[in-house]
Amino acid sequence: MKKTLLLACVCGFLTALAPTLRADTFGANFANTVGESLSNGPFTLGWSFSVSGTINVTDLGVFDSGGAALTEVHAVGIWNSSGTLLDSASVGATAGGTLETDALGQTWLDTGAPVTLGPGTYTIGALWVDGADLAIFPGQLGSVTMGTGITFIQDQYIAGGSLADPTGTSGETGAYFGPNFEYNAAATPEPSSVLLMATGLIALGAIRKRARK
Fold first, then answer.
1. Is the dihedral of CA 49, 54, 60, 64 positive or negative?
2. Which of 108, 182, 198, 206 could share a disulfide with 59, CB 3.0–4.6 Å?
């Protein structure tokens, strides 16, 4: 009997604490498949956004115009509202990465860069040294759909030959969609998991009670 109760306890806890698997989705999905050339680089180009809940950023990506191979390595980063770099990666050319396609058929080149973002305001940016690789510019952007829990704020940019927090903005409702990210919502226990945890606690209590006797 003790072994049965102990097994129920262990199974209840392990199942309840196991994270719920969530599918990754893009922070921004839009219809453009071909970008434009940057003529006055280098710049860190990007956009600011807010997060309403807690999300797990699994990949940082760079726009891959028309699915063509990137010719440069682009440094990508995410900063918080205080200008602290939370995560960064290198995407494209010799940096490697995996081709991904968003819900609208847009191709991105992603690289693993896991980080958790809580509710707040953030900025994502990627370095464009010149116009060899194309990007989406404000005014060129067609329809865009933000991922669940993600709200677009405005475009962001800063001049310079190294990746930097893009603090400048023209206030455009469009954005410099060169960088993007994939994420999933932070896992929360399912009701059934909570029930299993309760079962585990009850079983543990029974074991301790029998042990006293």
1. negative
2. 182
In whole angstroms, what is the distance from residue 20 CA to residue 191 CA?
A: 12
Tokens read off for 140: 């060129």
Going from N- to C-terminal start, the domains of the chain cover 2-19+190-212, 25-185
Distance, C-alpha 136 to centroid of its chain:
19
Instruction: Please report the beta strands in 81-196, taking only residues with DSSP state E, as ranges in sequence order.
Output: 85-91, 98-101, 107-117, 120-128, 144-146, 150-159, 179-185
> Is cis: bond before 42, omega within 30 of 0?
yes
- Do the beta carbons of residue 151 and residue 102 sit within 8 Å? no
Model confidence pLDDT, tens digit, residues 176-207:
888 999 999 875 444 444 444 444 445 445 54
Phi, psi of 149 (to 5 degrees): 85, 0
pLDDT single digits (tens) 75-129? 999 999 999 999 999 888 776 778 887 776 677 888 888 899 999 999 999 999 9
* Token pair in block for residue 145: 């759909």
β-partners of residue 164 are none
Return the CATH class of domain 25-185.
mainly beta
pTM: 0.77
Q: How many angstroms separate the CA atoms of 5 and 205, rounded?
A: 10
* β-bridge pairing 120-128 and 144-146: unpaired
